[in-house]
Amino acid sequence: MFRLIEKMAGGGIRPPKLSAQELFWSWCGSFLGIGAVALLHERVLAPYDLVMIIGSFGASAVLIYGAITSPLAQPRNLLGGHLLSGFVGVGVYQGLGQFPWLAAALAVSLAIVVMQMTRTLHPPGGATALIAVIGSGEIHALGWLYPFVPAFSGALVMLLVALLVNNLAPERRYPLYW
After folding, report:
1. pTM of the entire structure?
2. How far apart are the C-alpha atoms of 66 and 16, rounded to whole Å?
């Protein structure tokens, strides 16, 4: 038991304090990225009962605008994580939606394993799978469209903004790899 407690004590080094310029670019990217997806949702897709923005994009914004060197923030992980997790979530919901607790747990767990197997691990992907299960009737009505709109297409819009904003700053470079 003592060993377990000892492991939880931490002891690593905290990340360094960020410069005002770094904070500025993170803010700009997240504002423009989420703003673009929300605007597309409101002005283009909502009138057709389609969804463009989901909660997991907030967490993606943290990674692709605020932690751009993380392997979890790279384009392959962003796009693949949302797309694959969307498919997992829809499949689990369609098969086990009558058991919400089981569908929720299975969707997230399977999404993690699928992302690990495909080297597309993106933590917000777990939320994308979960949203497919616990989301609104509007989300459920999308069916197999959900992995594409909003999961992949919204992530793609955010990626395009990340490519632009993250490379405008002289000290930033994104992506590290595809």
Report:
1. 0.93
2. 13
